[in-house]
Design brief:
about 180 residues, alpha/beta, three-stranded mixed beta sheet, 6 helices, 9 strands, about 20% helix
């Protein structure tokens, strides 16, 4: 995490400080500077636009996979350590090649303020093993039935946190004390 961000939010984050790695690296507001921490970690492999990803993130993984998609973490909903959903062809190919069971959906149909569309990885997150929450109703996405069937195939229970269309909030992080 950026030390600057931590310092600005220390009153909230201090109870988790022993689990937070700080860096002097700071994201900038424009692409690709804004993807500094938007890499996808699966096991000991990090997928991302490596020329824009934090050195701290890269040093934390044994294997690095360079992909064109700068928003790698936002582009993939990892339902478990072995399966995920994406609309990005490059990430789909990279993860499938590494043995991850992936469902490819069509891009769009996910709202994101200020943008034409959002990403499936930013529209939810894992609550627990076997449970994944989405910001919105999967069935309002044209590939919603396929996503539900894919989750069921992998014994993943989906939870809708809202009744509207899927909405990208940048992902969901569950913090346990």
């Amino acid at each position: 995490m950026s030390k600057k961000y931590y310092d600005e939010n220390e009153n909230i984050l201090h109870i988790y400080s022993k689990h937070i790695v700080l860096t002097d690296e700071c994201p900038s507001g424009r692409y690709p500077g804004d993807v500094l921490f938007d890499a996808l970690r699966v096991g000991n492999t990090l997928y991302g636009r490596l020329d824009a990803v934090s050195e701290v993130l890269k040093s934390s993984c044994k294997r690095l996979v360079d992909v064109k998609q700068g928003y790698a973490r936002c582009s993939v909903a990892m339902l478990s350590d072995t399966c995920g959903i994406t609309a990005d062809e490059g990430l789909y190919r990279a993860l499938t090649a590494d043995g991850v069971d992936m469902l490819k959906i069509r891009p769009g149909h996910i709202s994101l303020d200020g943008c034409d569309y959002g990403f499936i990885g930013g529209a939810g997150g894992r609550l627990d093993d076997g449970e994944y929450a989405f910001f919105g109703d999967l069935l309002l996405h044209p590939d919603g039935e396929a996503m539900l069937a894919f989750a069921e195939k992998h014994k993943i229970k989906t939870v809708a946190l809202d009744s509207g269309m899927l909405r990208d909030h940048g992902g969901l992080v569950v913090i346990r004390k």
